[in-house]
Amino acid sequence: MKKRQGFYTIGMVARMYNIHPQTLRLYEREGLIKPRRTAGNNRLYTDEDLERLEFILTLTRELGVNLAGVEIILRMKEQMEEMQKQIEELLRFIEEQLQKLPKEERGVVRVPKEVAVVKIAEIIQKAREEKESG
């Protein structure tokens, strides 16, 4: 996704992604996107909303996932991101505790510098490649 700035109206977003405004309203009713509202109750979409919309459109357009599937995938993605944060926090804590040990005892335990978690984007890319080659 290109980095953008600011807020976007439903009409702007519909034109940007070549979708009908009713589709955006449906996604909101289904709880897939949650745009902000103005005092006049107009929808305003943020850059984060657009990133989420792009993910939804990739799932539906390119991979043929229905909205129920999109909802499940989004929930799982959020859970995975939360677990990743918890893992990183745990690793920082372990590293801090290891630093408190005498140097000769630290060598007994090694904490990996990076924890690899499969990202949804990698799964989608693999599915695209399989679809194209299949």
Description:
This protein has 134 residues and is mainly α. It has a single domain (10-133), classed as Orthogonal Bundle (Multidrug-efflux Transporter Regulator, Chain: A, Domain 2), CATH 1.10.1660. 63% of the residues lie in helices and 3% in strands. A hairpin with a 5-residue loop joins β1 and β2. The model has no long low-confidence stretch (mean pLDDT 85).
Short recap of the structure:
This protein has 134 residues and is mainly alpha-helical. It has six helices and two strands, in the order H-H-E-E-H-H-H-H. The chain has helices spanning 10-17, 21-29, 47-62, 67-100, 103-106, 120-133; strands at 36-37, 43-44.
Distance between the termini: 27 Å
CATH class: Mainly Alpha
Q: Return the CATH architecture.
A: Orthogonal Bundle
Mean pLDDT: 85
- What would you report as the Rg, rounded to the nearest angstrom? 21 Å
Indicate the CATH topology. Answer: Multidrug-efflux Transporter Regulator, Chain: A, Domain 2
| Beta strand count | 2
Globally, the shape reads extended
Spans where pLDDT lies below 50 across 5 or more residues: none
Beta strand %: under 5%
Largest sheet: 2 strands, antiparallel
Q: Give the strand order, joined by hyphens, for the main sheet.
A: 1-2
What is the number of independent domains?
A: 1
Protein structure class: mainly alpha
| H/I helix tally | 6
| Helix residue percentage | 55-70%
H-E string: HHEEHHHH
